[in-house]
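Can anyone check this?
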Amino acid sequence: MSCGTNRDCGCATSASPGVDAGRRAFLKSGAAFATVALTPTVTLMAFGAGDAAAQGAQERLNPAARWGLLIDVSKCGDGCNECVTACRKENGWEDTGHPATDAQWIRKVTLTDPKSGASRELPVMCQHCDEPPCVDVCPTGASFKRADGIVLVDKHRCIGCRYCMMACPYKARSFIHEALIDQKPHAPRGKGTVESCTLCVHRIDSGRNPACVESCNATGGGAMMFGDLNDPESAIAKRVAELASTQLRDDLGLDPGVHYVNL
């Protein structure tokens, strides 16, 4: 049975039985554990430890902020993949030409007007919704939203059930099928878990732009803007206020953090 997508969404199968059994046994064991933050975005499970470190990391975030993107589709050139290439290099995922199983943290999509035949290319990634359905359906709490609105996956809690992939209307999440090597320390991944765009939280937490935005503005069409949507004085908030921006599938009421103009 399949949900009808062109990617492995997990409708029929989950992770390997051995992996699933081990994770379920761990989760059901009732052992006392706490989430200890190594950085505000990377966590590990530490047995017998308190959760003061994790709580402190969350408290350092700005809950008044809402990080997001504004993408001008008219500046997104046909065939330009600077944002995709930058994301792949920054976060260490591979595109081997197998879209059904490859990681796709960000991808280029072509939309065609059926009446005029006019087409537009635009990047699509995790939309970092204010009401993320992936978080709602996750049985372990692995999918979560940070205090500043960024939606992430805790790889130590993900059991590979892929409910979040089925719940996401943007097909923005990928399941890791293969063993991984040469991982980036700031972008932990793991076979048998789900992943998606993190907005480059390691960059945001150090005051930098996401890699896709930096690359698009440096060598692409300058189509992407990043900033705090909740700060009325920020450049992105001013642009969103003055332009007729669009959120993908705004009819769902998820309030995505990614806005598009000239779509």
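Reply from J.R.: I decoded it. Residues 17-28 form the longest helix (12 residues).
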